[in-house]
Amino acid sequence: MAETESVPTRSWIGRVVVWTITIGCFYLLSTRIDGAAARQGQELVPYLTAVFAKVNWLALVGLLIPYSLVFFLLDSVAVWRTVNWFNARVRYRDILPVRASTYILSIMNEQVGKGAMALYLQRREGVPGWKLASSMLFLMFCEFYYLLGWATLGWWMNSQTLPPVFDIIPLIAIGAVVFFVIFFGYFRGAYLSGTKLRDRQIFHAFREARLPQYLTILAIKSPALLAAVVVYDIALRLFGVELSLTQMLGYLPVIFFGAGVPGPMRAVAITLWVVLLPDHAGEMAAFALVMHNFFIFFNAAIGLLFLRRTQREIFGATTT
């Protein structure tokens, strides 16, 4: 009985933590933007209205739509490659509808979207759910390392112009490399072969994965990040703020880490932009709000195009 009660308890605690973080982020945003407006002798609403008014929206939309499509295609390649390695032979064109549809759920939480993708593939291909969950876990693991790798490169190229807090990045990277060596060796059976943790079903993908497969996912994901560096840099100039490409390379992977924190409107990612560039609080709040929410809602719109097919392939077999 205690075990069954622990699940809703953990869920309740998780919601409290998410909303506490979100409220804290919005409070910090409001104080920073209020302060910026006051320094210019303006009220908050006219200040933000002026920020939005100077943006060339046609140019911005023309920039973001192709980037969102490129991200969708590359993201689907990573999913397709992983599923084919560890689960079942699936065509790339059959991965596209499910990946697009899960962007709808990802509006609130990216990990919920991955869970829905596992359910879809379980129903469509008959692969056990635990194997698919293992593959999704493998993808999340690789995403952490690809973002950390680019963040470390960005710090190395531009450490003198980044805030001092970024100096922790190389320390995290060293710790992550050490952890990966231990982790990879353990799941490849190099030591502690008598332990049972490695044999659990949820770790199926990690038992099977070879080093080139980890590196392949990093290579598939990287073009999307490099494209994002260029796109975000150009978009930021439309809001009247300029950064070098190397500065953007230092900032963006850290921002994307923040975007992975569940909560409304990607509150952590938006707040990070304002904290990193406090002299342009209004511009950065507007920029971050537009960029992150355009991206997730446009991707969700792509998902709507495929939603009927996804529903048919999940539920159609049960209704015939």
Give structural notes.
The structure is a single chain. The chain is an all-alpha fold and 320 residues long. It has one domain (11-315). The chain is 79% helix and 0% strand. It has helices at residues 2-39, 44-53, 57-86, 92-105, 110-125, 129-158, 169-187, 204-208, 211-238, 245-259, 267-276, 281-319. Helix 3 (57-86) crosses helix 12, helix 4 (92-105) packs across helix 12 and helix 5 (110-125) runs antiparallel to helix 6. The model is unreliable at 1-5 (pLDDT under 50).
Beta-strand residue percentage: under 5%
Number of strands: 0
* Overall outline: globular
Radius of gyration, whole Å: 21 Å
Give the mean pLDDT: 83
- Specify the oligomeric state: single chain
Kindly give the count of domains: 1
Helix content: over 70%
Structural class: mainly alpha
Largest sheet: none
- Spell the H/E element sequence: HHHHHHHHHHHH
> Helical segment tally?
12
- From the N-terminal CA to the C-terminal CA, the straight-line distance is 38 Å
- Low-confidence stretches are 1-5
